[in-house]
């Protein structure tokens, strides 16, 4: 069942009913100011940090769902409605929401009156623009009243939800003309404020939520709107809002436009005031002057569209499969950028009140983003590395505003250090910029402990090399990629955190998954060492990698698949010897990606076992059989009902690992089959089952054991975005950045046909024309580069050259 459709020409998803299974959202913003907006205008805004600088209030776990937002109430006679349907839920004659790249459009019609709302965050300014157009399509004049509504958050989103004894006495506003300034706590330690304004004189205002809504009422039926007249209330403590009333006369066929702005401003700490308790408004005035007219707004919107067109043009494929084209060219790259910006900090599932930027998460996200804006990837790598500890281990997350590591989730996740190597290797391959290795980077955010980035990489590898267990496999610590496989936790207390309880370093629980990472990224580290003349470090790393490769063959193979781990008593996890949880997806993917077991014939056995034991019509499950009781030695993974989350759910994040592994052994049919099962575009027609947005990936899908098999959760902010783009762009379509240039080695399904691909790389544009006359799954016979025959599959890089035309001959 579909609730909308793709509009590929406009790069939009068109939602045709407000009654989607869940709120279907979009992200506005690309730098510092961000808004989450749903298909019914719900959502929230923040500046840089969704916890510490939350601008508008949102209510999670609320009934009705998806409240609050930025709402526009239209009172036309006795009828009150909203362009996005919520919160009044008045049935509309026409409804449409178009989520685009960095913007959303809403169109509503009721009783001959049409409303068009365009919402976006401009590229270079800390504000959200809402342009509302009202048009009288009837044959009679209309006198309507328009009421805006925004509820301010008292900055710290956690404190805002909990510290009522203080917060209900702090709210402060200033009202100047059509502008409402939210200045709560500005009188003390803050030097920032927000404002909400409209580019026309107003007929009234309200800044007190209680006054606007009325006693016992919700935002679905505000008393002010019902009465048709603002109360001109001034908030003092309690709950500050911003609402303006505009009375509008519309002749038949007439339309009028209004520009509303929600902005964020900062002043120097020593220059905060215009007068006693009067905030300095110059920063706000500059923003208002910049977007005062519809023409200025239209120009800013055109700049935003150009920004996204330029970004997405850096990778573009044309094949006969519209789903591949749509995902590769638009939605997968778009989600990669959103996920890069947000990490796991702000979505409708990650509330933005706890988790910050993940160390592992951000490193993985970079894999799908580095080709878009390499300079921002460089900055992110340095930010991440600066939170690393001196011994090479890491905080698991850090706050985006302060860029300081925090221990809300803890540390001691022993896969974290190796992901830094993965991120830096991806950056070096993309850019050839080895100067990043010489950048002085703090340890634990203390510059007096700074060392070159290369030293951070060396310590990352050394931490992994020196933290091995009795089987010579890496110690797992608190967990590895699977945060819920807690082999050192042993928690019996309800409510206790599985990720912070128990010793982070022991005793001897080991991870075969980290062993696969160790081989793959240890090889990358050795290669980086060689390229910067660190031959001794390269030799140490290479020897360690070879030893780990053998350790996996000796102690990590279970006969038909790779083991998952050894627990704290050295008992096997993910073995046919286990009662439950006999086979896990992660090592089957990552060990083969690392090349382990390929020449020995083990890779094919492992992948065949995955298909036989883990595959479903909705994707590959994390493990089987599901855990039916709580296992003290395994931790959180066994705390979920069977089929949900880490307990045998379908984690979309590591399905691409299996697909990539299939390309390693040349099985394009199987690789593409796996890709299609979780790809949003292919499964749009089961939206009533899947429930989350059909244009972006979700973190997980309920597995075969679950009551709601096929239902997705945790959309948008997931490593699935980056890994799926790596899978599609580099493994399946085959264009891979390397230290020496671009290589191409497609692994595609039979019948995929010829395709073309454009890729910007190190200041040049590469035009690939892939020919597959014999319909093979994998195999490049030779290349023609600008008409010259080249053996193999690497395009030689020539200094100063800005354009390459490459014909790829597969056979």
What does this entry look like structurally?
- The model has no long low-confidence stretch (mean pLDDT 96).
- A ten-stranded antiparallel beta sheet has the order 1-2-9-10-11-12-19-16-15-14, covered by helices on one side. Strands 6, 7, 8, 13, 17 and 18 form a six-stranded antiparallel beta sheet that branches. Strands 22-40-41-45-42-43 form a six-stranded mixed beta sheet.
- Helix content is 27%, strand content 28%.
- It starts with a strand and ends with a strand.
- The protein is α+β, with helices and mostly antiparallel strands.
- Helix 9 packs antiparallel against helix 10 and helix 16 packs antiparallel against helix 17.
Radius of gyration: 28 Å
Helix coverage percent of residues? 25-40%
Globular, elongated, flat, extended or rod-shaped: what is the shape?
globular
Number of strands: 45
For the report, how would you describe the main beta sheet? 10 strands, antiparallel
User: What's the total helix number?
Assistant: 19
Across the major sheet, the strand order is 1-2-9-10-11-12-19-16-15-14
Beta-strand percent range: 25-35%
Task: List the uncertain runs.
Answer: none
- Secondary-structure-derived class: alpha+beta
The CA-CA distance between the termini, in Å, is 40 Å
Mean pLDDT: 96
